[in-house]
Amino acid sequence: MFTLDARKAPLWGAFFVLALLAGTVVARETATVARVVDGDTVWLADGRHVRLLGINAPELAHEGRPEEPLAREAQKRLAALIGSRPITLSPGREPHDHYGRLLARVRLADGRDAGTELLRAGLAVAIAIPPNLAGLGAHERAEAEARRAGRGIWSRPYFRPRTAANLHGDETGFYFVRGRIDRTGRSRKYIYLDLSRRFALMVPRRDWHFFSGQPSSWVGRTVIARGWAFPRGRGRLGMKIGHPSMVEVVTTKP
Length: 254
Description:
It is globular and about 55 Å long. Strand 6 and strand 7 (about 100-105) form a beta hairpin. The chain is an alpha+beta fold. Helix 3 (about 115-120) runs parallel beside helix 4 (about 135-150). The protein has four helices and 16 strands. About 30% of the residues are buried. The strands form three sheets. Strands 9, 10, 11, 12, 13, 14, 15 and 16 form an eight-stranded mixed sheet that branches. Strands 1-6-7-4-3-2 form a six-stranded mixed sheet.
C-alpha cells in the first residue's frame, strides 16, 4: 500500500495516481518467465504469479482432480511460445484476482499475443470477465478460427456442453453447459437466468448493460454458457456470467 500527499507531489503525479486508481491507465512492463505452470498461468522470475487474461486452458491434475485432455499440450505450447525471451505484460483494469495473481495479457517477443495463439491452436477457450475486456474481439476471432477447423478442444467429446438439468451440486469447475432459460429472478447483486431447478446463470446487476433487452426477454431461449460452476447450497449450482460473449444463443423463444 502507498499514500499520496497531494501537497508534496507534483500535479502530474497526482493525476497519474488518480487515473491508476480509476482503472484508466494500464502500465505495460517487460518481465522474464521462470516457469510455465499450465496453459494459462506462469511464474515470473521476480516471484509473481500471472494469469493470462481472456482465456481458459484445460487443467492439469491438482487437488484430487484428474488431468483434463490437452492440458499438457497447452502447457507445452505456451512454454514454446515464450521460450527464454522476455515477455510484455499488459495488466487488466482489474489487475488481480481473488488468489492474488496478476491478471495480464502476455505479449511475446515477436509481438504476438500468447492467449490469441493458444486460442487459434484450439488449446484454450475465450472468456470475458468485466472490466477486463481488452482484446476480446481478437480472442473471439481466434477461437472461431479453431472451431471452424475443429482444432484441439473443438474436436474432443470431453469439452462438449453438458445438460444443465443433469448436473448436480458437487459438479463444479469450468465447463460448457446447455439449457433452456425457463425463468428469471433477482437479488440485490444478481439477475438469475434459470436453466433448470438446480442450475442458474448469475449476471451481476452492474454488468447487465452488456446484455440486450430485459431479463424476461431471455426466457424461452436455449443457450450454451461457459464458465465456472460453483455450489449454491441445497444441491444447486451457479455460474457467474458477466458478458454476453460467455453465452451462445442456440435458439430463441418460439
